[in-house]
Design brief:
Length: about 80
């Protein structure tokens, strides 16, 4: 199944398929380790629900939904 990173449920894990954004926004996501094949786990959300904390390549990062909706993930079998 393919979903956007913003749709990942708490505790759910996915692998990056691609980034559907260009320019500076893409460079920022790549610099944070969001490369094809990278394992992403949603850890927790702020009380307001945005930003959300993810574990990416062993690091905890917080991203807004407006950024993560451009990241396509493969989840499940």
């Amino acid at each position: 199944m393919t979903i956007s990173m913003s749709e990942l449920a708490c505790g759910q894990v996915g692998r990056v398929l691609d980034l559907q954004v260009q320019g500076v926004a893409r460079e920022r996501l790549v610099d944070l380790g969001l490369l094809p094949g990278a394992r992403i786990e949603r850890v927790m959300a702020s009380p307001a629900g945005d930003p959300i904390c993810y574990r990416v390549r062993g690091a905890m990062i917080a991203l807004r939904n407006s950024d993560t909706r451009h990241v396509r993930l493969a989840v499940g079998a």
